[in-house]
Amino acid sequence: MKLYKSIWRYVSLSEMNRILLATIVTAIFHGIGITVLCTRMPISYYLMGPLFQFMFTVSVRFAYRFINLVRRRKPRNENAKYNSLIIGAGSAGQIIIKELENSSVVQSVPKCVIDDDPNKWGRMLENIPIIGGREKIIEAVQKFDITQIIFTIPSASAKDKREILNICKETDCKLLTLPGVYQLLNEKVFLQHLKPVAVEDLLGREPIKADLGQIKQQIQGKVVLITGGGGSIGSFRALSPDCDL
User: Fold this and answer.
1) Residues 174-191: pLDDT tens digits?
2) What is the rounded average pLDDT for all residues in the chain?
3) Please, what is the angle between helix 43-72 and helix 13-37, to 10°?
C-alpha cells in the first residue's frame, strides 16, 4: 500500500484509508493462515488484533505530524499591525486563518469569525470564535478592536456580497476579499489572493464602460447636465480626466 514511501509530516486521511485497507488485507491473510496452519483462535483474537494494528499504525504517524505542527507553530504576534475579522466559516476561511496564524511575515491576527449559518454560531474555527451573522459585524469591530476585515466567501452571490461589504464599509476597517471561486475549485487559497475591495464588489456587477469618443461627438460644444453622477455611468467624466469634452 506504499505506506513506507509516505512522508509522515504530511500524513492525511488518504494515508489513513491506505492503512485501513492494509489492515484488512493482512487480517484476512493472517486469520486464514493461523487457522489453517496452527489452530482456531477465539473470535476476540481475530477482531482485536487488526484493531490494535490499525490504531497503533495510525497513532504513530499522526503523532509525528502533530509534534511537527506544534514545533512549527509561531507564537501569536501581540504587536501585529491588524486585528482581523474573517467573514465566512467555510474552507476558504479556514485556510486563511491557518495562513494568518502560521505565517512569519503577515502582520495580522485573526480575532473572530462571522458567518450567516446559525449552526456555526458559538463554535470555533481553528480556535477562533464564530460570533454570529452579518448583523454582528459592527459590534464585533468594536468589541475586538478590529482594524481589518477579510471576506472569504468566493461562492457568495453578488447580492449577499454587496450587502455584507456595504455593512463593512460603515466601519473604518481595511477591507480585503478573495477575487473568485476558482481558488476553491483548484484548492488554492492563499493570502496573496486577497485584494482590496473594488467598486465592482459593491456594485454586484461589472462596471459599465462608456464609449467616450462616441459621446464626445454627440455633446461636443453643448451644455450638458449629468444626473446620477455617483454611479458608474454618470461618473465616467471623473474617471477619465484626460477626455476634454
Assistant:
1) 888 876 544 444 445 455
2) 80
3) 150
Residue reference for cell 489452530: 39
If one counts the domains in the chain, the total is 3
Q: How far apart are CA 219 and CA 27, in angstroms?
A: 86
Place of cell 509525528: 64
The predicted pLDDT at position 198 comes to 56
C-alpha cell at 136: 454582528
CA distances, 69 to each of 56, 66, 98, 111, 148 (Å): 20, 5, 12, 21, 27
CATH, residue 169: 3.40.50.720
Q: What is the pLDDT of residues 6-55, one digit of tens each?
A: 887 778 888 899 999 999 999 999 999 999 998 899 999 999 999 999 99
- Section 56-63 average pLDDT: 91
20-34, 50-64, 89-103 — which is least confidently predicted?
89-103
Domain boundary among 72, 106, 133: 72
Beta strands in the chain (DSSP E): 82-87, 108-114, 124-125, 128-132, 148-151, 174-177, 195-196
d(CA 121, CA 240): 46
Asked whether residue 62 is domain-assigned, the answer is yes
CB within 8 A of 93, min separation 6: which ones?
A: 86, 87, 113, 115, 125, 152, 153
